[in-house]
Write a structure and sequence with these properties.
By secondary structure, the protein is of the alpha+beta class. It is about 15% helix and about 20% strand.
Length: about 190
């Protein structure tokens, strides 16, 4: 398959041929329909050698959506062909922050960074290997090709509002500027 990879420090990414991953126990192979390009991807490519402790090369892209292609043994809750978005922050699932649903603040030292942000392959490829079904969210009738950026750009504004909701009483107004970019059909999210 084709994959856009971080291959050399402080160099542009490269489109390369890599093997299609096989899903092991509990894992899911997603056929990528959309992969958003985030500014974080550019920051990674600019890093000097040794700035991070991950091994090159790896596939970039942590804003992903697609269709369930294959389920590894024990992976349940989804059927082949189901449209899904892939939640980007891959935590351990066991620490206090992960149990609160804040996997982006995982406290487990030495765990791999979320897909595409530090040594683990991500979604700027034809297929993405997801470590657990808990990172998949059903899309219903949304098209994965359009929904991928919602996994980061959309969640950023959502989390900001969610953290402030306790400050908002009846009649309060909240500005969600990021949503203004999306067509009105996404307002139901």
């Amino acid at each position: 398959m084709k994959a856009f990879q971080f291959v050399e420090w402080q160099q542009p990414g490269q489109l390369r041929d890599v093997p299609v991953p096989e899903p092991g126990p509990g894992k899911v192979l997603v056929k990528v329909g959309g992969a958003g390009a985030c500014h974080s991807d550019l920051h990674l490519l600019e890093l000097p050698a040794g700035a991070r402790s991950f091994t090159l090369p790896f596939t970039l892209g942590h804003e992903n959506a697609g269709w369930v292609e294959r389920l590894g043994p024990g992976a349940t809750g989804f059927a082949l062909g189901d449209p899904v978005v892939v939640y980007g922050p891959w935590g351990c699932g066991l620490c206090m922050n992960c149990r609160k649903g804040m996997e982006n603040y995982c406290q487990t030292p030495g765990k791999p960074s979320p897909g595409g942000l530090g040594g683990t392959d991500a979604g700027m490829a034809e297929y993405l290997l997801v470590p657990s079904t808990r990172y998949l969210i059903p899309l219903g009738d949304l098209d994965p090709r359009e929904a991928a950026p919602l996994t980061d750009a959309g969640l950023t504004s959502y989390h900001a509002v969610k953290r402030s909701v306790h400050l908002l009483g009846p009649g309060s107004t909240s500005v969600q500027a990021a949503w203004a970019r999306w067509p009105s059909r996404y307002s139901r999210l």
